Structure formats: C-alpha cells, structure tokens
Amino acid sequence: MLSEAKPGTAEFKSFDGDEQMGMAMRVQVAENPQYTGRYLAILGDGTTATVKRKMKRSLSLNVATTSDFDGGLINEAKLEQADALIYENLGVALVSVEEDQVAALESLGYRIQAEKVVYVPEDVIVSGADENVTWGLSETRVKGGKYSGKNVKIAVLDTGFDQKHPDFKGRNIVYESFVPDETVQDLHGHGTHCVGTACGYTDTGGQRYGVAYESDIYVGKVLNNRGSGAQSWILNGINWAVNNGCKVVSMSLGTVVKEGEAYDEAYESVARFARTRGCILVAAAGNESKRRLQKFAPVNSPAHCPSVLSVAAVDSVMKVADMSNRDLNGKGEIDMAGPGVMVNSSWPMPTRYRTISGTSMATPHVAGILALLWQQYPDATAEQILTYLNKAIKKLSLLTADVGAGFVQAR
Amino acid sequence: MQKSLVITLSDTYAGKAKEIADLLSQDGLQVAQVFDFGVIIGTAPEEKITKLREHKAVIALNEEKQAKIAPPEDDIQ
User: Fold this and answer.
1) Which of A116, A121, A344, B10 is 20 to 30 A distant from A206 in Cα terms?
2) d(CA A234, nearest CA chain B) in Å
3) First to last CA, chain B
C-alpha cells in the first residue's frame, strides 16, 4: 500500500495495489510527437472498483482514481507511481501500458484511444517578449501584455469595414450603417484601417498590428464612401454603440473648428451620457497642422469636447507628427498622444494592408488599449478606467498642448 | 431657406426631450430625431432660428456640421 501522504492533503495517497512501482506514467517526448505513448480507455458501464480490479488482475496495473487526490490538482509528478488513473466522473481512464498490452485492455471491454499531444498551432502567435509587432504596439507596451479585449465591445464609427477581409474571419462583428443609401461595406479604406488597429490581430507575415484582438467589434458606418458624414449620423452611431453596451467608441473623424471656438454642446452631451453608461468616447485631434511650416491648427470637434478623449499623433521616436493639431485654447483639449506615423493595418481587399499616418491612426490605438483595461477591470466605472489609463501614460518632454499627459501605454 | 439644426437642451430638460421637441415644433421646427441625452435634430426656416434659440430649454442651437476625412489615396489620414 502506498499511503505516504497525510490524509486530507492533495497528495496522491493510495494505489490500492502492491508496491511494484516500476512502470511510471511518463510522457515520452520526441520531436513534435503526435502521441504521448499513453492510452485513454473509455470505460463504459462498471463501477470504479470493478475497473480497478479488472486492470489489476489482467494486467498487473497500479490503478489510481481521481478521488485519491482529495480534490486537489492532479499533475504528472503526482502520477509518477501509477500505471493508470481513473477519472471517475468522466468514465475514462488514462493508462500507461506497452503497445502489446493494448489488446488485453480491449478484451476487458474498453474502447482504447492513443493519447494525443496537443500543440499551439504554428500560425497563432502567443503574446510575449518575442512577439513580432508594429512599432505602435511595441512602444505602447501592448506587446507582451496578457489582455486581448476578450468580451469587450468596441465601436469604430467610420467609413465602415471590408466585411470580407480575411484577417477577421471568425471574429464577432456587428454592423450598422447610418449613412443613407450606403451599406456598411467600406469603399474608402479608412474605417477598415482603424478597425484593424483597435481590434485586429496579425498580418500574413505574422506581424501583429491590432491591439484588442479578441474584442467584439461594432462597426458603425457614419462617414460615406467619400469620407464625409453629417453630425446626426455620428450622433446616431454613438447612441447605437452606447445602447449596445460598447465600452469604447473610437472616432477617427472630426470637423475643423476656428481658434477660440467653443466646444460642441451636442457632442459633449452624448459623451457625458456615454460615460454614465460606462462607455468612453475617443476622437482624433485632427490633421490640419503643418508643423514644418510653423502652422498649428486647433483641435477638431468632437475631440475638443471635455468629455471626449482627444488623441494627438507622434512618430516612433516620440516626435509630434507634422500634421497633428494643437490645443490652441489652453483648455487641455489634447489628452494624450498615440502612434500616428507610418502605421500599418488592414485595408480593403485586395490591397489587404496599408501603412499611413495621421491622428486617425493614433486614435484606435488608444481605443484598443481602453478595451484591454475594460477586460482587466470589468466592474470599473468609466472614470476609474480613465484613471488607470492616465496612471500608465509615459511622460514626454513635449508641450502639453501637443501631447497632453504623454504617450499612451497599455500597462 | 431650410436649415438642418442640432439643438442641445440643458441638463434640466434633457430628460424631457420629447416634450420640448413638441414645443419647438410649434415654433417652426420640423423634428427629425430626438435623443434621450437631450439633443434634437431637425430642420427649420432660417427666420425661425432666433425664436427657437430663445427657448429656455435650449443651451445650444447650431447648424448641423459635417465631419470629413482625407480621400483614400492620401497618406495622411
């Protein structure tokens, strides 16, 4: 009898067999083997005691049962001394026998299957230090993070989405067009690019370009295929997203405003409404500046609203992007900066991918990162999520009017 | 000439947006949509706008704006 472990512990305590422990249950590992060398016996009818007795009598096996582990974890180390383990609730036994003993097992009335080795598919990239990612995902520390946006709904209000883009096969996507007489199919490209950054995953070369790669995607078409949209379409899109439980609304769009112009009360109202429903609106600061010529344009609407997160663009060496707008009113109209120069993401087929620049590209990085935070803190309020976001921000030696609190970080 | 309008109500009246929309329609607003968060979309002749703006529930009345992005061929988006 084996009863070395104390009763009540999770240790394996009894095989109810003799003390010949010669044949341990070990996985025989070769280079990418298909099978472990062990077998699964489907037991059918019969009590655990009967099965144990039969296996011991016919094949001299030391048989353990799951109840021997007192409900604790069962692992390879604990199985070291057993030849077979009966999973009592499953009607299955894991058996370590030589190949020539399989027939004997079958003669006991059990169906036998070789235990298979399970591998992570080669085309799935596990997030980690050696993950191949775009510069934006690297600099925002999305790379190596453990969150994927799973079960978080992100709305991207834009020119729609290429519904046949192969990178998104199998994803949960909800579509709605708020543009009269146009389907959600993206004939512009901008929407597909933004969806890719916020919610996509990897390209055909294995490089990851999307932040919240397991999020639920809500595509709201609020800009027509020529790239323009009425404010009522956008308000409708936001209302739809909030009422559908989206936690983030990404809007890489805007209306040019004059310096000193007050923020738009209608956008502010819907943004505050969204916050009370646990949804954060993110918008692009706009691209009307030409910094190389010392020309600075004010933050677009709705990004300039106090309750909308406004995103500027920086490049990979943390320099403000030439086109990125500035808070000219001194009212904190830029909240933060994101990766917005030479950003690679999805584009309608057959082009498939495209590298472009702008505050439109920085915005979905922030939206995706917010989805990661919502996954991490599902019971948080919108204000708490914003606090977590702000705590992680990387400070930059740049003007607050240009980059707000700094460069967005996933953690 | 008809103008497309976006009307925002004060917090006090945001919860009564439908009733306010009815009142504004009596002053010449053709209501297209009423949002629970206190915004009304509609159209009205230009000469009615001053009266609509003076309503005590209205904190902002603007002509509907258009958002625009760059054409697809641009590298700056």
Assistant:
1) A116
2) 9
3) 34
Say if residues A340 and A361 touch (Cβ distance below 8 Å). Answer: yes
Residue A384, number of CB atoms within 10 A of its CB: 13
Contact A269 B69 (CB under 8 A): no
Q: Which long-range contacts (CB under 8 A, 24 or more apart) does A67-70 make?
A: A68/A12, A68/A13, A68/A14, A68/A15, A69/A10, A69/A11, A69/A12, A69/A13, A70/A8, A70/A9, A70/A10, A70/A13
pTM listed for this prediction? 0.75
Distance CA B35, CA B53 (A): 18
Determine which one of A68, A83, A96, A158 is catalytic.
A158
Q: What is the largest CA-CA distance in chain B?
A: 49
Q: E strand or H helix at A52, and its extent? A: helix A48-59
Q: Could you count the other beta carbons within 10 Å of the beta carbon of residue A150?
A: 13
Minimum CA–CA partner of A272 in chain B: B37
Q: Long-range contacts: A136-139, Cβ < 8 Å, 24+? A: A136/A197, A136/A338, A136/A339, A136/A343, A136/A361, A136/A365, A137/A208, A137/A209, A137/A211, A139/A316, A139/A318, A139/A339, A139/A407
* Active-site annotation holds for A167: no
- Residue-wise pLDDT tens digits, A183-240: 999 999 999 999 999 999 999 999 999 999 999 999 999 999 999 999 999 999 999 9
pLDDT tens digits, A17-61: 333 333 344 443 445 566 778 888 888 767 788 888 888 888 888
* ipTM field: 0.97
Give the separation between CA A298 and CA A72, rounded to whole angstroms: 62
- The residue with tokens 């834009």 is A158
To the nearest whole Å, the CA of A375 is away from the closest chain B CA by 27
DSSP-derived letter for residue A333 is -
**DSSP code of A117?**
P
Q: Is A385 helix (H, G, I), strand (E, B) or coil?
A: helix
Compute the distance between CA of residue B65 and CA of residue B42 in angstroms, rounded to an integer.
Answer: 13
Q: Which of A137, A411, A157 is nearest to A308 (CA)?
A: A157
Residue-wise pLDDT tens digits, A238-282? 999 999 999 999 999 999 999 999 999 999 999 999 999 999 999
State both tokens at A271.
Answer: 């943004």
Who among B7, B60, B72 is closest to A190 (CB)?
A: B72
Which one is predicted more confidently, A342 or A8? A342
Q: How far apart are CA A147 and CA A392, in angstroms?
A: 15
User: Which has the closest alpha carbon to A238: A284, A270, A275?
Assistant: A270
